[in-house]
Amino acid sequence: MSTTITSNNPSIVSERSYKDLDLNFTPHPVKKDVNKHVNERAIINSVKNLVSTNFYERPFRPEIGSGIRQILFELVDSISGAALERQIVEVIQNFEPRVEVDSITASPAPDDNGYYVTMQFFIINLPNPITINFFLERIR
């Protein structure tokens, strides 16, 4: 899943700081410890992980997942795109309390066997929206 991120907020000033580990486990060049993502980047990674997680993939938390893989094996059309949009909004509303989804568009790309997804959301207590773009396609 490739991602393009656009934000109108060059500096984030927030009362709360959000931190997550870099899931690629790349070491920090100086500290030699695992990198961490903070604030906007941490939440974007969390949203991407929720969207790409299938049910029963997380140990001890089988209810977390989006079920979009099933939709990706259906015909690539606007009906499946609408179902994909609903699934993404539902998983974010259920499992990411730091985010409020503003809009989401899943545009079918039948020639590429996938969907171009554009999602705009607000991080709670921050005024400017964040827009992410990614391409969803079936793996096998």
Features:
two-stranded antiparallel sheet; 140 residues; single chain; 3 helices
Description of the molecule:
The protein is of the alpha+beta class and 140 residues long. It has a single domain, classed as Nuclear Transport Factor 2, Chain: A. It is built from three helices and six strands. A four-stranded antiparallel sheet has the order 1-6-5-4. The protein has a two-stranded antiparallel sheet with strand order 2-3. Strand 5 (114-123) and strand 6 (130-137) form a beta hairpin. The model has no long low-confidence stretch (mean pLDDT 84).
Mean pLDDT across every amino acid position = 84
What CATH first level would be assigned? Alpha Beta
| CATH third-level topology | Nuclear Transport Factor 2, Chain: A
Largest sheet: 4 strands, antiparallel
CATH architecture: Roll
Low-pLDDT residue intervals, each spanning 5 or more residues: none
Helix and strand sequence: EEEHHHEEE
Q: How do the strands line up in the largest sheet?
A: 1-6-5-4
Based on helices, strands and strand pairing, what is the structural class? alpha+beta
* Rg over alpha carbons: 16 Å
Indicate the proportion of strand residues: 25-35%
SS field, number of helical segments: 3
Separation of termini? 14 Å
Helix content: 25-40%
Estimate the global geometry from the Cα principal axes: globular
